[in-house]
Each structure stands twice: as C-alpha cells, then as structure tokens.
Amino acid sequence: MAAAAASSKMILQPPVRSGREASVRTPVALFRSSPPLFSRNQASIKHSTRQFVGLKAAGQYFSSNFSRGDSYKLLEASVKTSQRKTLSKLTCSPGQARIVAYKVAVLGAAGGIGQPLSLLLKMSPLLSNLNLYDIANVKGVVADLGHCNTPAQKETTQAKGKAVLDWDFLLNKAVSGFTGPAELADSLKGVDLIIIPAGVPRKPGMTRDDLFNINAGIVKDLVEVAADTAPNALINVISNPVNSTVPIAAEILKQKGVYNPRKLFGVTTLDVVRANTFVAKQKNLRLIDVDVPVIGGHAGITILPLLSKARPAIEFSTQEIEELTVRIQNAGTEVVEAKAGAGSATLSMAYAGARFAESCIRALDGDPDVYECSYVQSELTELPFFASRLKLGKEGIEAFVHGDLNNLTEYEQKALEALKPELKASIQKGIEFVNRESAPLAV
Ligand SMILES: NC(=O)c1ccc[n+]([C@@H]2O[C@H](COP(=O)([O-])OP(=O)(O)OC[C@H]3O[C@@H](n4cnc5c(N)ncnc54)[C@H](O)[C@@H]3O)[C@@H](O)[C@H]2O)c1
Questions:
Q1: Among residues 238, 230, 239, 240, which one has the least CA distance to residue 260?
Q2: What is the pTM (predicted TM-score) of this model?
Q3: pLDDT digits (tens, 9 = 90+) for 353-383
C-alpha cells in the first residue's frame, strides 16, 4: 500500500550537491537545444528569475512552483540521459527538488476560463494528468495543448525506488479530452482535484445571481457524477453565483453521503488577486509584496477586502478605503462592461484559478505553509458558508485563520454586518434548489 501511494505521487529526492549553488532558470529556456544557455546579462537575469514567484500568493515562496526549482529538476529528470550532461550544471539548490504528480480534471475546459486555466495547469510540474471535460469543443483544446512540451508529465515505472519519467509521454498523453455526459465519469476517475468553471458567464447589466437558473443545474449535475466517481477529490467551484453553487455542491455531496466540508471550495482567489493589484498600484508597492485577505462571499457587497489586515501594514485614508473596497467589489463588472457582451473575466480568473489549484496540490503533497482565501463551510460567523483565509493541508482545510476577523475597523465591521443578509439569502437559495430538485413528484 505504502509503495503504491508513494508511486502514485512520485517523489524524487534531490541529488546531494556541494560547493557552488546552481542556477535556477525558467523551464522554457531549458528546451533550447544548444548552448549558450545564459546570455552576457546572466547575473541580472538570474536575479530577476529568482525574484519571480509565479502563481504563488504573496509572502509564500515555495520551491514547487512551475517557475522555480521543481520544474527545473523535473525537466532535468525528464530529458534523455544524453542530454543531462549539459543540464547537470543547471539544477536547483539542495533541498528544493521534490517532484510530485497529481491528477486534475477541469469541467468546462473548452470555455473562456477553462482554456487558459488548462494551459496554466499544463505548465505545472505538479500534475501528471490533466483531464479536460466539456459538452463540446474539447478535442481541439486537447490537440492544441498537447503540443506544448511543458513539464506536465506522467509517471511510468518504478525502478530501484526512483520514478522513471517517460519523455515521449510529454507530447500528448498527459492531457486527455472527454466530451459530453457519457464521458464525464471517465474524466473523473482517480483524480485528486476537480475544478469546475462550467456554465454561462455574465453579460453587461447582469448580476452573478442572474446566472443561477442555468448554472445551478450544471453544477448539480457535475457534482453528482463527481460524488459517485471521485468522492475523495478536492472540488474547486468557479461557476457563478459561487455564493449559491458551493452550497448546491455541498447538498449534493451530502445526499450522496460523501460530503467532506474540508474538501469543497468556492474559488474567490480572483478577489484577492484584484485586491492585491489595486492596493499595490494605489500605494506604489511591488505587486508581489501585497497580500489582502478578502472575506465574505463572491458577489457585490458580499466581497469584503480587509484592508486593515493587508500585508505589508499599509495606512489608508478613509476615502482610499471606500474607493478601493468598492472597486474590488465591482472589478468583475468592470471587465464585463469592457468586454461589452463577450463574457466576463477569463484570463485573470484562469490565473487565479490556477494559483488556487496549485495551492491545493501543494497542500495535498504536504507543504506545511499553504494559505488561501476561499468560500467554504464555516463557523467563523453565523453563516454556514463564508470566505476567509484558510490553512490548507493534506486533507483539505486544516485550519481557519480566526485572527483576520478580530479587531476589524468600524468600516469593515459595518460592511460585514451589511453583507450577511445577502449572503444568507444566496446560501438559502442554493440549498432550496437542491431540495426542490430532489423532492419526490406529487402524484
Ligand atoms: N469564481 C470567479 O471568480 C469567477 C470569475 C469569472 C467567471 N466565473 C464564472 O465561471 C463560469 C464560466 O465562465 P466562462 O467565461 O469560462 O464561460 P464560457 O461560456 O466561456 O465557458 C463555459 C464553458 O462551460 C461549458 N459548459 C456548459 N455547460 C456545461 C456542462 N453541463 N458540463 C460541462 N461544461 C459545460 C461550455 O460548453 C463552455 O465551454 C461562469 O459561471 C462565470 O460566471 C467565476
């Protein structure tokens, strides 16, 4: 059993290195076939590459990101022995390399979010298999993505305790397509993480709640099959209205007898990403240095950025607090209006979704330092679902960061009280939808 578990997660130990520390470079550069691998500006490039933390949350600086050490080691391990001589000088520093391989399914993979999200996931060395499901147009996405020689790879055999990576497998097979309800269950077999961006997006003038009638049924149908096929997987719900679709997913999982509240997440990372971006720009800070927890829900006034808890500690005027809060709450509408009928946020959402997915995978793999905000079943307030900062672990939610709700400013406290009725109604709407759908028909 233990051996099987180890093999399914594929862990390689880093080589013991001594003397000078090796350079860490981006994966792309490694695929260039011939030297020189560094330019004359190597020192500055190396420096800026080291500063780049990819999808990670600010303040977190792990080695398992696709843009840092692990992908480097993975690529080195992936290439044929004959090529290793060149690459051996470029390995990451001791203690950084730990290669993992998880299976992820994206449901709604051919959509505006699904496609760029799948691309970002394909770039992650943490994944062995990427299963793409949609009701249409998946084949093209799979053919397209399958040509990326990015680090996503598949474990093959075990030799003397070391996983052997199949270089040929990189080209196509790590990404698989599944079309239509008949193939949904197959797309979910053995996956560790299910990401759901399926459904219709907003058009100008619509609220997220206006999407309820279509998306509620889509999420319900997908989670029913997920409950039967991959009951232990983490589920990341992106489909709006998240304030209702997460309670819908919870009710379905309960009905199926497999609900684990630690494993069901509404993805609110985009609110955090936007808050970090707007605050950094307002205060002239480096984007990567800012971290603002965003609590509540994921629609209008239910989105509550806690600017008093921002890191680094930042002074805001009352006017700045009001303007930033409103902008963060309406940022989705900003994009919907700019796209003028062509949909809602897709690229920033794909980025945020990939960051959250990567955090989930790192946590599953035992990284002890993974914190993200997410909309989950919660006891932090009287509301049964609430977004807040969480510590993620091997079994999903490991702990709630209670401190974020202490010592709120008067403005935040009022905003928190103001959001509760709307959030409560959205939760109730989701629960009632499932109960109504599953009530026996009156004869
Ligand atoms: N959580 C967030 O922060 C956030 C941000 C932006 C958008 N969203 C939401 O994400 C969802 C998707 O947005 P988009 O821009 O990608 O929309 P889109 O219309 O571009 O893509 C949706 C995809 O879902 C597919 N789909 C529809 N029904 C399906 C089903 N039953 N099973 C599987 N796939 C199905 C469609 O074929 C399409 O490919 C929307 O609900 C949108 O409101 C959430």
A1: 230
A2: 0.80
A3: 999 999 999 999 999 999 999 999 999 999 9
